[in-house]
Amino acid sequence: MGSCFDQIIDRRKSDSIKWHKYGDDVLPLWVADMDFASSDAVIEALRKRVEHGVFGYGEEPEELRLAIVEKMEAEYHWSIPEEAVVFLPGVITGFNLACHAFTEPGDGLLVQTPVYPPILNAYRTSNLTQDEMELTRLSDGSYAIDFEAFKQTITDQTQMFLLCNPHNPVGRVFTQAELEKMAEICLRNDILICSDEIHSDLVFSESHHVPIASLDPQIARRTITLMAPSKTYNIAGLDCSFAIIPDAELHKQFLAARGGMVGEVNILGFTAALAAYQYGQDWLDELLVYLQANRDILSRFVDERLPGISMGKPEGTYLAWLDCRQAGIGEDPASFFLENARVALNDGHTFGTGGEGFVRLNFGCPRSVLETALEKMETALCNHS
Are residues 157 and 92 in the same domain? Predict the structure, then answer.
């Protein structure tokens, strides 16, 4: 099956934001959107649903809740009741809704930078203050948590911690010990945890994802977990995500805050999610092997052929975080590579403190596209030097 991920699908002729933002001569390795067709199971389920021909208001499939419950038990030994699941049109919607539901204007929101821009900006939607702690970059390019800094960042106003795990953009899959320490500090300070775990299925062989709420029932009672099949199966455009909220009171508050503010999941999103969870595991297993090989090729290329650039190997996601500060290409490496290599990357500055001089690179693409982009970046560096 691996060869199917080598297939080049022409997305310039589709409605792809990724491939339309820049010129036709640009290779886009920026937004977190893979260039792979979804699994045959998902495509066939969507085909059958479309052939039905009627697309009126729909309801969630009963089997989908059960599939999620069984997935949590099988993968994480986490037992959740079906009624803990709340379907949402997106994880970004989920954490913004959580801010609205559980905080008041002026409360503090704790985040770890550099971080996914919508998380970085979530405090604005509910008029909160931002409590930022910067992750510590180690000599090998990986990142760690300074727990003293974590504690010191918390103020009397801090009411919620917005965790990103696996972490976007640095690629960490936090260990159980790290999660336990963060959860213990939050519980001690009566801070609610909202955990964005959208990349939880995209974890490489040396790591294992642990939902923070699965650690202990007491932690689960103070946690809103956000997950989705969207990144995993490349179906983000179908807008199907979910929250897991085991605590009845938090669940009630979350639904009350939702009110008429948040739309429903569309029927094709439900169809795709159910097919992915029921029949997509073989495809996902092959995808992870392919992505890990892409990651390793990228890591070697950076080490051997991109002078002045370094990266830590991501433990999860299909996103790499490249440090360009020693490459001599100025303070805006994303613009440098766009202009000189015709490769589009995410500007590290948009990920907040600690992102200056970095770029984020999406290696969820056919290997030939990745290799061509890297060769273009190498040529741009050589010409510049």
Answer: yes
In a shared domain, residues 67 and 194: yes
pTM: 0.97
When divided into structural domains, the chain yields a total of 2
Please, are residues 231 and 32 in contact by the beta-carbon 8 Å criterion?
yes
Q: How far apart are CA 242 and CA 265, in angstroms?
A: 10
Q: Mark residue 78 as left, alpha or beta (left: phi above 0; alpha: psi -120 to 50; beta: remaining).
A: beta
State the distance between the two ends of the chain, measured CA to CA, in whole angstroms.
Answer: 41
Tokens of 62: 């009963």
Note the pLDDT tens digit of each residue in 62-118.
899 999 999 999 999 999 999 999 999 999 999 999 999 999 999 999 999 999 999
- The string of pLDDT tens digits covering residues 242-293 is 999 999 999 999 999 988 777 889 999 999 999 999 999 999 999 999 999 9
Residue 76 corresponds to which tokens in the numbers above?
């994480």
CATH of the domain at 245: 3.40.640.10
Q: Are residues 229 and 373 in the same domain?
A: no
Task: Look at residue 376 and tell me whether its pLDDT is greater than 70.
Answer: yes
At which of 279, 304, 328 does a domain end? 279
Q: Strand 358-362 relative to strand 319-323: parallel, antiparallel, unpaired?
A: antiparallel
Domain that holds residue 90: 54-279
pLDDT (mean) for 318-342: 98
Residue among 285, 320, 328 nearest 301 (CA): 320
